[in-house]
Amino acid sequence: MLNTLKKIAFERVGGTEEERRVFDILAEEVRARGIEPTLEAFEVETFRRGTGEVTLLKDTPVRFNVNPIGLSGSADLDAEFRYIEPSNLPFAEPCPGQIVILPERVSFKHYEQLARIGAAGFIVVNPPGHKPGYHSLKKNFASRFGKIPGAVIGYEAGLKLISNAKHMLHMSLQQDEFVGESHNLIATIEGERPEGEIFVCAHADSVAGSPGAVDNGAGCVEMLGLIGHFAKNPPRRTMHFCFFGSEELGLLGSYAFVERHKAELDKIAVVFNLDVGGDIFGDNKALITGDQDLANFVDSHNKLRGMGLHVTRSIYSSDNMHFARYGIPSINFARSGLGASLGHSIDDDLRNVDERSLRSLAEIALEFAIVTANAIAMPFERKIPKDISDEVTKYFGERFGIET
User: Fold this and answer.
1) Average pLDDT score over residue span 272-288
2) Which among 148, 150, 292, 400 is most buried, taking Cβ atoms within 10 Å?
């Protein structure tokens, strides 16, 4: 597994040539396991990471490097700036032409408020101890409210900005934005039973600037292991395996899939989602986006087999969410810990992953896949109960401004 991960652990932003290259590699890996995959294309608004700096306009100017936030545009502006805590954004007075400093990533609700108060730009302060990453906005933010240039700055630099709030700030950002072609790679192994299909997925893209080893090259190689097993051991139920594109741009691959395959969704009994894995100092987890009986099934099997799996019932910010909108439950397998804290950064690389950790979660996911795919009757209901459905609705509304 680790050798395969080494092939794909490079920056691969959705809709870029690098993402297409990773799909070519994954397609060859699937073929090597005896299955011919299908590649489905869809358009995305995407970007190449750019450069930027902000300058405190003091008697002796002080410059700080920043990372432009993808899909927020370029900028060259002088402005006053102010810090606003996220919980206070809905109550903030208009500050037209000012740059707003925030301590967390910008959601749809944040962006809506920034537009309301007339912000000319915004700066997100990175957590202490982490190198600034390359965040991106979702495609509908600018289309709904116009472009507001944004950047990410390091924690220490953010502290210096806050202590000099009486000065003006110059923000200079340059980045390339374009419409690209992203893909989903799908492999199907037909079963003998016509109902209760199993859908297994992992996203193949990374955030800008990141090799994406833990998030989510690990999930891709884990899924290749499952494909290899079922290619040699055909399941009773039909299984679909999908490497999604452009997850990091806003779950765009899974959205494209469910929109294109609406007529087939009723056949899917459950989704197994592999997102975040391989963490050397980590714990294996199963997050159940579904009914209590699905959680009970996973937890009882976990205890019977002594898997050491942490089972919780909740939503999970990944490709499973678009399936939840159509009433399809999911088991989200993840391994997270110290290395996973470096996700969405240039430090999410192969140093944080080893063969043992990759296999530990892959073997758990495989066991659940074998039991479910070969079940005479499904051991749980295909159901999204109201409490989870409400969380799904809230998630899409606050993160993306999408009504479900």
Assistant:
1) 97
2) 150
